[in-house]
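queue> pop job 88
queue> type: inverse folding (structure -> sequence)
queue> payload:
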């Protein structure tokens, strides 16, 4: 069946935000005297804001008001984004090559309010036919609901979609949705993601995969 839609995760797939989140999260953890083991960082990727703060409060026994913790975290993230968030290399060229040929969607665990802040305050813009945020669903990734909702809104079947994801939770959601899933590694050393027929380290490789299956 022909591919009709390409759906993107946001952080680490469309924008180069993962290093910025890590810096902001380190600042937050330092504030509370927490040393995070290297192997723990992978659990933060792809989580919603609420899930992230609940996870770290329990895991590291942070003794503070959760609203204060969230306020500090949001401030650090915005400060790091203001220093220079932008599209990942190759994304805009890839986008131009598919624009008008496929329906497009953005499915993210980011909140709608923060996404709107990004669109207003950084070079990143809303260029997608559809956006699904954490506020639009009852069950976040790794549950497939965000992607199933995107399929419904785009009026496509799962097998007519390609999803590009980079995190464990995101890839699990994409696989469970029934869509063709590309694991996007983006030249990182992180290989701790589920096994898939398709992996890519950059957008040139993604374009080659799409040309073969689309």
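queue> result:
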């Amino acid at each position: 069946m022909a591919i009709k839609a390409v759906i993107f995760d946001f952080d680490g797939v469309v924008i180069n935000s993962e290093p910025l989140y890590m810096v902001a999260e380190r600042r937050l953890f330092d504030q509370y005297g927490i040393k995070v083991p290297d192997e723990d960082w992978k659990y933060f990727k792809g989580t919603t804001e609420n899930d992230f703060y609940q996870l770290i409060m329990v895991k590291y026994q942070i003794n503070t008001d959760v609203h204060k913790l969230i306020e500090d975290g949001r401030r650090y993230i915005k400060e790091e984004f203001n220093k220079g968030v932008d599209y990942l290399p190759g994304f805009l060229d890839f986008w131009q090559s598919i624009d008008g040929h496929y329906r497009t969607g953005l499915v993210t665990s980011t909140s709608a309010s923060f996404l709107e802040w990004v669109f207003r305050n950084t070079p990143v813009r809303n260029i997608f036919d559809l956006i699904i945020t954490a506020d639009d669903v009852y069950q976040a990734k790794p549950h497939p609901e965000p992607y199933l909702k995107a399929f419904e809104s785009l009026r496509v079947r799962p097998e007519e979609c390609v999803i590009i994801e980079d995190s464990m939770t995101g890839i699990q959601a994409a696989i469970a949705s029934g869509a063709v899933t590309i694991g996007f590694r983006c030249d990182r050393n992180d290989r701790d993601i589920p096994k898939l027929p398709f992996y890519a380290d950059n957008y040139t490789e993604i374009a080659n995969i799409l040309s073969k299956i689309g």
